[in-house]
């Protein structure tokens, strides 16, 4: 089905509606198996490289083992990311347990993740409040920006522990402190550097080159800020922690890794040229090379690489600039979000999950 011309507002609503009509209901267990296999591989590499690093002092081996540990550290956090989106297993108690083990016990709490990732990044990608995209002028600045975000999460964790002590957050903090303190500084520092490197360029690279044209449609807004990178590849999914199918994930956040191939196909069929994907190493290099730019129009990665698309400067707009572009409706939407925000707790979230039916679209 070919969508109507760009200027018709019903077209934007119809993209969301067509995709919503095709969202899946209950998925078979086979859709989750791929994610479970990847989680098992990730956990094995994480524990194995951690064991090798204990007491290791030879610089070259420390560097090599820290690189492997840094990747598995990032990938394990992405298992927690899946669980928080209810995409790891069809049973909520399993998702809660996995998220606790792979987030609270590994780097930062679920509550801090929920606020920064779900409430901001998914709701307002590339906004002034969103920190989950590449916006530095160099590799070092990209990594510093991500480190600053992580430190902000940890600061929120400590503040919450002081103001509202909860036993599972105290337990998670104790486990992660024990985990990190078990490594010698010689190993911990490069491990952190590699964690930031892989987090940026395996996790956030797909948010490069957003389209600098706003839309009222949630689905279109997500697709214009995100790419899919080899969405059908098991290896790409393993390496990127499932974030290779990032556009698909933003539209179907509760879709397990084993069903992302299906989700990408739906986006190709229903979203037309709004859906952007990369299927070549040359395209990946173009995303990396131009990661700090926006584009003036929706185009393929090949057209962008060939210079047939005008590039913009900053890949985001501040809240005031975005309001000027989108008009009063944007202010109203932001105001509604602020007014409707409530203190979030895990029991409340579980109740909400039980009430939810099917899979959310563009959550």
Structural commentary:
With 363 residues, the chain is mostly helical. The chain has one domain (28-305). The protein is built from 17 helices and 2 strands. The chain has helices at 9-21, 30-53, 59-84, 92-104, 110-122, 139-163, 167-181, 185-204, 218-223, 234-239, 246-251, 260-270, 281-289, 301-305, 319-326, 328-340, 346-355, and strands at 228-229, 277-278. The longest helix is centred in the N-terminal third of the chain and has 26 residues, at 59-84. The two termini are 25 Å apart. The model is unreliable at 1-13 and 315-359 (pLDDT under 50).
Short summary:
The chain is globular, with a radius of gyration of 20 Å.
Itemize the secondary structure elements and their pairings.
Elements: H1 9-21, H2 30-53, H3 59-84, H4 92-104, H5 110-122, H6 139-163, H7 167-181, H8 185-204, H9 218-223, E1 228-229, H10 234-239, H11 246-251, H12 260-270, E2 277-278, H13 281-289, H14 301-305, H15 319-326, H16 328-340, H17 346-355
Helix pairs in contact: 2-3, 3-4, 3-8, 4-7, 5-6, 6-8, 15-16
């Amino acid at each position: 089905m070919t969508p109507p011309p760009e200027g018709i507002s019903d077209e934007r609503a119809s993209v969301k509606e067509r995709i919503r009509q095709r969202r899946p209901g209950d998925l078979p267990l086979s859709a989750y198996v791929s994610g479970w296999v990847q989680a098992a591989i990730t956990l094995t590499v994480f524990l194995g490289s951690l064991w090798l690093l204990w007491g290791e002092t030879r610089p070259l081996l420390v560097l090599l083992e820290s690189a492997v540990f840094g990747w598995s550290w990032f990938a394990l956090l992405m298992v927690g990311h899946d669980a928080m989106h209810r995409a790891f297993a069809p049973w909520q108690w399993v998702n809660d347990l996995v998220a606790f083990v792979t987030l609270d016990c590994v780097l930062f709490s679920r509550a801090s993740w929920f606020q920064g990732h779900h409430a901001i990044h998914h709701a307002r990608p590339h906004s002034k409040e969103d920190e989950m995209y590449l916006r530095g002028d160099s590799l070092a600045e990209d990594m510093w920006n991500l480190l600053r975000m992580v430190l902000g999460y940890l600061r929120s964790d400590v503040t919450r522990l002081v103001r509202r002590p909860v036993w599972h957050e105290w337990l998670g903090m104790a486990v992660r402190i024990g985990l990190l303190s078990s490594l010698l500084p010689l190993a911990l520092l490069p491990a952190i550097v590699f964690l930031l490197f892989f987090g940026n360029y395996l996790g956030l690279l797909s948010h490069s080159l957003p389209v600098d044209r706003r839309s009222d449609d949630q689905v279109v807004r997500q697709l214009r800020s995100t790419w899919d990178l080899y969405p059908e590849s098991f290896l790409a999914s393993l390496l990127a922690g499932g974030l290779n199918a990032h556009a698909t994930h933003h539209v179907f956040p509760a879709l397990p890794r084993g069903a992302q191939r299906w989700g990408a196909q739906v986006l190709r069929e229903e979203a037309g040229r709004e859906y952007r994907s990369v299927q070549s190493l040359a395209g990946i290099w173009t995303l990396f090379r131009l990661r700090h730019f926006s584009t003036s129009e929706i185009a393929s990665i090949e057209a962008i690489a060939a210079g047939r698309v005008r590039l913009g400067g900053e890949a985001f707009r501040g809240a005031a600039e975005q309001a000027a572009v989108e008009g009063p409706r944007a202010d109203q939407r932001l105001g509604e979000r602020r007014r409707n925000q409530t203190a979030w707790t895990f029991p409340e979230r579980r109740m909400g999950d039980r009430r939810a039916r099917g899979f959310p679209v563009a959550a």
